[in-house]
Amino acid sequence: MRAGAARTHAGALFFLWGLTLSSSLAAANNPVFDEQERSRISSLSPLPPPPVDPSNRFSNDPRAIAFGRQLFFDPRLSLKGDRSCASCHREKSGWTDGQPVSTPKERFPRNVPTLFNTAFNRWFNWDGGADSAWAQALRPIETPAEMGLDRLTLVHRIASSPDLLESYEDAFGPLPIRREALAELPSAGRPVPGDSQDRLNLAWRQVPRPSQRVLNQIFANVGKAIAAFERTLTSGPTRFDRFVVDLLADHPSESLTRSELRGLKLFVGRGNCILCHSGPNLSDGEFHDLGLAVNMHGRVDPGRYGAVKRLLRDPFNQDGPYSDRGDGVAPVRFLKLTGAQLAQFKTPSLRQLALTGPYMHDGRFATLREVVLFYSERDKARPLEHASNLIKPLHLDEREVDDLVAFLRTLSGPVGPSALPRRGRSRSD
Question: Which residues pair with 124 in a beta bridge?
Fold first, then answer.
């Protein structure tokens, strides 16, 4: 019995020694992160709760959220009743449409940005043409190549649709225009800058100024409801986030593979990806000329430059009369139009990246590997006069390309179906 016990004990010791040796060998082959790298990694996680939107006092209101969800999926927000916000922002495609561009016949066609984590944005769209989520939500409704409606028709539809009217009044109180007064106005109309003879513009000019302001407020509220819903579209924890928890606790982690760890070391180290893809949302929120301004039609997309011109005169910006901000420090107040903005596009978040291709503002890259190769060699870049000086060719070898792609895939987490109700609740609930 003693000899058997001794053999059993020796076997157990040998097994434990083998596990220790195996772990040591595995650790020896894994990248080691120095203090600077650990600090950079820790700055990328976790994703905090969404910040307050001072321009939208309804942004966290459950009734506004419910109404916004209803509007988001409602084709009555389009002229022909055949499209909704969800037509181009599909949950199964990472809240994009999965296509390179949504309107290929447009002069400057753009890739549909994801709606994941938009609550963390300072500027919206690839060019930053809106400074709030609610202002951004309004533009596709009136864009002819998208939903093609106009604000006056939209108000008529809300007033004449019992379900829309009930949900609107649930969220914002009584519609601020009497039905009799609304019936006296044209059936359609909106301002069309630069085209004084456009029929919608001519109809809008027939509307008395006080009524125009009321209609604009209703239109703004529609955007605020949609934005309130979109704020709920946040991504969940990723394998990278779990790794960061283990790293900061000095615990061994199996959340990332060896290849993914090497990719992470490149990301925060020699690759310097963190220069632009910084913070928990993995974006600096700024604009850069990457050398991709010439689009599929051979035209130079003005990018940020064209957007700033529109934004400064947009009555729905955060400094305008329909914003709830009112503190005098809206970012648009400090925005100036400069030549350096030409062909600049916003740094996208890398969270949920694996779900939201194709990539870049014009969707020219179908895969993450193509994106990494572009940054590696920069041979296809055609920067203009004010190109970003932050981006240098990386000259990655094949394994490094594979490793960086593998790491980027760890930044996508699980997603589930939205459970918000399609209808608002009545105030008596």
Answer: 130
Name residues whose C-beta falls within 8 Å of residue 369's C-beta, 6 or more positions apart in sequence: 401, 405
| pTM reported for the whole predicted model | 0.89
Closest CA to 64 of 220, 288, 228, 296: 228
Q: How far is CA 278 from the centre of its chain?
A: 15
The architecture (CATH level 2) of 32-47+235-303+342-409 comes to Orthogonal Bundle (1.10)
Region 118-142 average pLDDT: 97
Structure token digits, residue 35: 């203090």
Report the SS3 class of residue 142. helix
102 neighbors 110 (Cβ within 8 angstroms): yes
Nearest-10 crossing angle of helices 398-409, 258-268: 90
Superfamily of domain 62-230: Cytochrome c-like domain (1.10.760.10)
Q: What is the mean pLDDT of the chain?
A: 90
Question: What is the mean pLDDT of the segment spanning 335-361?
Answer: 95
Q: Which amino acid is at 26?
A: A
Residue 295: its pLDDT value, please?
77
Q: Which residues, in sequence order, are CB contacts of 155 under 8 Å at separation 6+?
A: 177, 182, 215, 218, 219
CB 328 within 8 A of CB 360: no
